[in-house]
Design goal:
This protein is of the alpha/beta class and 836 residues long. The chain contains 33 helices and 27 strands. Helix 17 (387-399) packs parallel to helix 18 (432-447).
Length: 836
């Protein structure tokens, strides 16, 4: 038994992450896992160093033992974490050494960009200039904005003139045929002095909306009228004036600007009145009570006179040609649902360089759409934040057409503290509440039938699903009786088992929650979408999705996937469980080279760190408690953890028998070579010559690597989509065939239980057959083909096996046993009493 504190990462774990390349970096950044730092230190040092030892080596300049690329990737992860601000000097030292030595390929461009960004913000302008001179790909990215920033006189006191800087700063505008930007003379911050050299002439005719045009001359009116909605709450007057002026100075003058004040409490009311006097096209709408940006936008939509509607943020700046370009796009293609523009991120000094960020992004608030569509859709959801993307995606679904993203930089976003959204996004990281909201609304979009209630009388459609508190502004209960912890984005055997367990108790009178934590072993799944069944229960309020940073008391916490705790972030969560059970599922390897998805002792320490609670291990029924205790030095609880196989698996479409067709065999696998036999045995058991059709539920990439191949054999199908229904999978398969090279004994394999429940015979190795008590054919590898063919041509043996298997699963894994187990553990005092 190894000491997991001395050797936190083993070779097999590191090899897994190495195969995922840059996707592993994205997980390490998004998860904020401290263990990820040890993983990358292991890869950088070929297993010789921990992260702490690597830091010590960097600080004393001892780089000879390290691979430059992995060293740079490690400190890229470090540098973008706010909690590791104190390590910035160390990270810069590591990148200064490593980045010049990494290959100059596009895959390494983020590392090379990062070194420039760190040098720039450290004030090392000369060294940053040398880097650009030596690396054309870094220098040329996005209209050479880094070169422009090095000439910015508002950052560098040694540069007095701004003519050279302005020319370089204007490259994105002039190369897209836009007016160049200049600055109004004065001492104010540069962002608030933005202007263009072109004078915007106010037309003699303006259109006042869906009613009658108001003519002040003989010129034909510009069509259509555009309504710009700017919502604000306690704005900084200087910033709001900049934003308003940028809209009123548009080349498309046939517009109205609605400034919707969301019941500001810290602004002189006369300020808004003075704005309204500035231009007849500007109207102030005052909300009777503070309801958030999106209720304010809905009020603006209802008050709008324009045929087209778009938005503007309080502290940003729109290029004078923005509205004109957006209207032109919609007029040229009337089938479009809408159009957005590109925003350039800058600070008040007009610097585009930011650590870890590209200088441009899609500007959600710039979305231009038809007022009639917004009314028919019910407007924006009544959320406090985050509803821009939802509205855009719902608009696409509603119209059955696309939203075009114009690449021209027609919007400048002012990066400043205090924004509702900017606290929720960092490089590679999104706040859990934002991810939860995204998953919730995307599931809702798949369920929408018919037209939503139209927007009327300054109201919006009621929230059609339960959204996180930080998004909706509506408080949720501060307790749950029972909380399940897993990576609910995945839909493997472990997650399917957990869903069946929740289904068994969801209507039993207990308040049930889930906690979503990302598993590093699900790197390939969507970062936003939860399991559809889980999301349905969350959306309709039958279960509660807990947020890591929000306080909540929990009676019983069941950690269904230990890996999500083992690899979790370091910071304490707001969740306080009374009891924590960790189900010993997955691969709990204990040797330096054995493949494992978690380490029990590390997991125990993580539970204490995250929740301030002591954990107790429990093994699923059928697993060897004595073996687990001997390997890991912990004594699991008795009785064992009961398993549930839902009745939905107990149906099967009968397949035709006969010797005149190819047998279809099913295989369960994850993305690791150990899930498969050796290459020669794969060819013997599963066939690569076409005499069997092979269907893999899970991930066949481990088998491809085990065979030394780059693609699946032509008659294999990989069902890796997390939405795929396992019950349906077994209805398409004649025989389940399960062999691998995993060491040790096997308990009840969830996937094989599903196969039995689905009336699918099982042919497997002896270790998988033994727990199934005669309900599987345990054979040697050389006997697999003959056994499969016999089952295909003999319907009586096939049917007899199917009946026995269904009976075995139904009797041993009923939901009643699981409900009894849970009810016994949820004893008084209840969490309702504790919370109150």
């Amino acid at each position: 038994m190894t000491d997991e504190r001395t050797h936190p990462v083993n070779d097999a774990e590191a090899a897994f992450f190495r195969q995922y390349a840059w996707r592993a970096d994205r997980w390490a950044i998004a998860s904020e896992s401290d263990l990820a730092l040890d993983v990358f230190a292991h890869m950088a040092s070929e297993g010789a160093k921990t992260y702490g030892e690597t830091v010590a080596d960097v600080e004393r300049g001892a780089f000879e033992a390290y691979d430059p690329t992995y060293l740079a990737r490690l400190f890229r992860i470090v540098i973008v974490r706010p909690s590791m601000e104190s390590a910035r000097d160390t990270a810069l030292a590591a990148l200064r050494y490593a980045v010049p030595k990494v290959p100059k390929i596009s895959a390494n461009l983020p590392l090379r960009n990062l070194l420039f960004e760190l040098l720039y913000w450290a004030g090392e302008f000369g060294e940053a200039r040398e880097l650009l001179d030596a690396d054309a790909e870094v220098a040329e990215s996005y209209y050479r904005y880094k070169v422009a920033d090095l000439s910015n006189p508002f950052v560098r006191s040694d540069l007095a003139r701004n003519d050279e800087w302005l020319k370089k700063f204007n490259a994105p505008f002039e190369e897209n045929g836009l007016f160049p930007i200049s600055l109004i003379e004065g001492s104010g911050v540069p962002f608030d002095r933005l202007t263009t050299d072109r004078t915007i002439a106010v037309p003699e005719t303006t259109h006042v909306g869906n009613d009658e045009p108001r003519s002040t001359g003989d010129s034909a009116p510009l069509e259509p009228l555009v309504t710009v909605i700017l919502t604000t709450f306690n704005p900084e007057p200087r910033e709001l004036k900049t934003s308003v002026s940028s809209i009123l100075g548009q080349t498309w003058q046939n517009l109205e600007l609605l400034v919707v004040d969301d019941c500001s409490t810290e602004v002189d009311p006369n300020f808004f009145a003075s704005l309204e006097k500035h231009d007849s096209r500007l109207r102030i709408i005052r909300m009777p009570m503070n309801g958030g940006t999106y209720l304010a936008r809905n009020a603006g939509i209802l008050a709008a006179r324009g045929d087209y509607i778009t938005g503007q943020d309080t502290d940003d700046w729109s290029h004078p040609q923005r509205i004109e370009r957006e209207v032109s796009a919609l007029l040229e293609d009337e089938g479009l649902a809408g159009v957005t523009v590109t925003a350039n991120r800058t600070d008040e000094r007009l610097v585009r360089t930011a650590v870890g960020f590209s200088p441009q992004r899609r500007c959600e608030v710039s979305l231009m759409f038809r007022r009639s569509d917004a009314i028919a859709m019910g407007g924006y959801l009544p959320m406090r934040k985050g509803a821009d993307s939802e509205f855009r995606e719902r608009l696409i679904n509603h119209c059955g057409s696309s939203v075009v993203d114009l690449p021209e930089p027609l919007y400048l976003t002012r990066l400043s503290p205090g924004s509702l959204s900017r606290a929720d996004f960092r490089h590679g990281w999104t706040a859990p509440a934002r991810l939860a909201f995204s998953s919730a609304y995307r599931y809702w979009h798949t369920q929408i039938s018919g037209a939503p209630a139209p927007l009327v009388e300054r109201r919006t459609i009621a929230s059609p699903f339960v959204a996180p508190t930080r998004i909706s502004g509506r408080e949720q209960s501060s307790f749950v009786d029972l909380c399940f912890v897993a990576d609910w984005r995945a839909s493997g055997p472990l997650e399917r088992a957990a869903v069946d367990e929740i289904r068994a108790v969801v209507d039993g009178g207990h308040r049930i929650g889930i906690l979503q934590l990302d598993s590093p072993f699900n790197i390939g799944v969507s970062p936003r979408i939860l399991n559809p069944q889980i999301q349905e229960w969350v959306n309709d309020g039958r279960i509660v999705q807990l947020m890591p940073d929000e306080p909540c008391h929990v009676g019983l916490m069941i950690v269904r996937d230990p890996a999500v705790i083992d690899y979790a972030r370091n910071a304490r969560m707001g969740i306080n469980p009374r009891e924590v059970l960790v189900v010993a599922a997955g691969r709990s390897g204990h040797s330096p080279t054995e493949w494992r998805t978690y380490a029990p002792r590390r997991t125990e320490e993580a539970v204490d760190r995250l929740f301030g609670a002591r954990s107790r291990w429990i093994l699923p029924i059928g697993d060897d408690r004595a073996r687990f205790a001997q390997q890991h030095g912990v004594e699991p609880l008795a009785p064992p953890y009961p398993l549930v196989v839902d009745s939905k698996y107990f149906t099967r479409r009968r397949r035709a028998h006969g010797a005149d067709r190819l047998p279809i065999v099913g295989k369960l696998a994850a993305n690791h070579e150990s899930e498969w036999p050796t290459a020669d045995k794969i060819k013997s058991i599963y066939s690569v010559d076409g005499d069997l059709d092979v269907r893999v539920l899970g991930d066949a990439r481990g088998g491809i690597r085990a065979m030394g191949s780059r693609k699946l054999p032509s008659h294999w199908i990989d069902f890796r989509d997390f939405n795929y229904d396992a019950a349906q999978f077994w209805r398409t398969v004649d025989v389940a065939v399960q062999f691998d090279s995993i060491q040790g004994e096997a308990g009840f394999d969830r996937g094989l239980l599903e196969a039995l429940a689905g009336r699918t015979p099982i042919v497997c190795s002896l270790k998988y057959a033994e727990p199934l008590e005669g309900n599987a054919y345990g054979v040697a590898e050389t006997e697999v083909r003959d056994t499969v063919k016999r089952l295909i041509v003999d319907p009586r043996e096939h049917e007899a096996h199917a009946r026995r298997g269904v009976k075995f699963v139904a009797e041993l894994f009923p939901p009643e046993a699981y409900r009894e187990f849970i009810n016994e553990r949820l004893t008084e005092p209840s969490m309702r009493e504790i919370a109150s």
